[in-house]
Amino acid sequence: MSTTEQRRTAARGADPLPTRPAAARLLGVRRTFGPVVAVDGIDLDIPMGSVLGLLGPNGSGKTTLMRMLLGLVRPSDGTVELLGRSVPDRAAEVLPHVGAMIGGPAFHPHLTGRANLLRVAASEPLLDTPRVPGAVETTLRRVGLADAADRRFRDYSLGMQQRLGLAVPLLVRRRLVVLDEPTNGLDPAGTRDVRRLVAEMNAAGATVVVSSHLLGEIEATCSHVAVLQAGRLVAMGGLRTLLDAAGGALEVTTPDVEHAVRTLQGAGIDAEAGSGRVQVAPGPPPPAVVSMLVHAGVAVHEVTRPAARLEELFARLTGAGPA
Question: Which segments of 144-222 does DSSP mark as H helices, in order?
């Protein structure tokens, strides 16, 4: 039996992967390289079925964290679980269900795109040999390389190389996909294609972890975000929840502006009068503000809080612009 066949048999014969709320879990994870602390005591649960955007300035530990998730780097301290299995010790049991592109695509420069992808597909534990050619052709079409499949990899543009790298996790249905800067080198059309592919993988049941310098794309694509700064996790949660919490002043629309301002200031809440509305400084929860005003006899017509944009939140958490 060949090595590939052995891997396929092992993948099919392993214990069923447990269904858990977290697709991946890091507990107290720390990783050092000599005197350099790349990841420093991170606790992180990646919700099953989410699209998690991993953000942080250059050198914040994003790629190191992704490599530890995949068992490519062993933590100096702490534990990593991937699909309910300890990594790297039991990584072989789950890696067939995981697709990844870390650190840019690596292919044979003298082979065509099709030939490179055929070589990769032939080693896929979950892909039977008779299905390999069809899977390759379907995937080349999905990533927009069908017309360039017979060109050598060395003649591909950076964007085309990136597309071929994205083809690898698409060869079979995955439970988890990890993508490090998947839009690197892509034009706007290619960036939209990545957004579409991430959505398709997620709709098919995959949890997706993606890092990107394009905060607008993360905001448009992801359900959750985790922000790293100097190797530490500084924020994690649902994207909309984080943006709402980081929003500006609460705006209360009321015909009783002066009465509302007096009521709130009397309770020690910073409030300013506007035209037909009151601005309430961040702090008190909206339900508490509304309850206080209503009990004071103020007619409340509408309460809104403009959500922050991801770029604003990122800058606030890291003290940096997009990186």
Answer: 158-170, 188-203, 215-221
Contact 50, 22 (CB under 8 A): no
Q: Tell which CATH classification among 3.40.30.10, 1.10.8.60, 3.30.300.30, 3.40.50.300 matches the domain 3-243.
A: 3.40.50.300
314, 214 contact by CB (below 8 A) = no
Q: How far apart are CA 209 and CA 192, in angstroms?
A: 17
- Give the integer Cα–Cα distance in Å for 180 and 166: 10
Beta bridge partners of 180: 211
Tens of pLDDT, residue by residue, the chain (323 residues): 444 444 454 444 444 544 446 999 999 999 999 999 999 999 999 999 999 999 999 999 999 999 999 999 999 999 999 999 999 999 999 999 999 999 777 899 999 999 999 999 999 999 999 999 999 999 999 999 999 999 999 999 989 999 999 999 999 999 999 999 999 888 898 899 999 999 999 999 999 999 988 888 899 999 999 999 999 999 999 998 888 777 777 889 999 999 999 999 999 999 899 889 898 887 778 888 999 999 999 999 998 877 678 888 888 888 765 44
Q: How many CB atoms lie within 10 A of CB 314?
A: 26
Report CA-CA distances (Å) from 131 to 6, 112, 118, 268: 17, 20, 11, 69
Whether pTM exceeds 0.85: no
Contact 71, 88 (CB under 8 A): yes
State the fold for domain 248-304.
Alpha-Beta Plaits (3.30.70)
Q: Is 276 exposed, middle or buried (0-12, 13-18, 19+ CB in 10 A)?
A: exposed
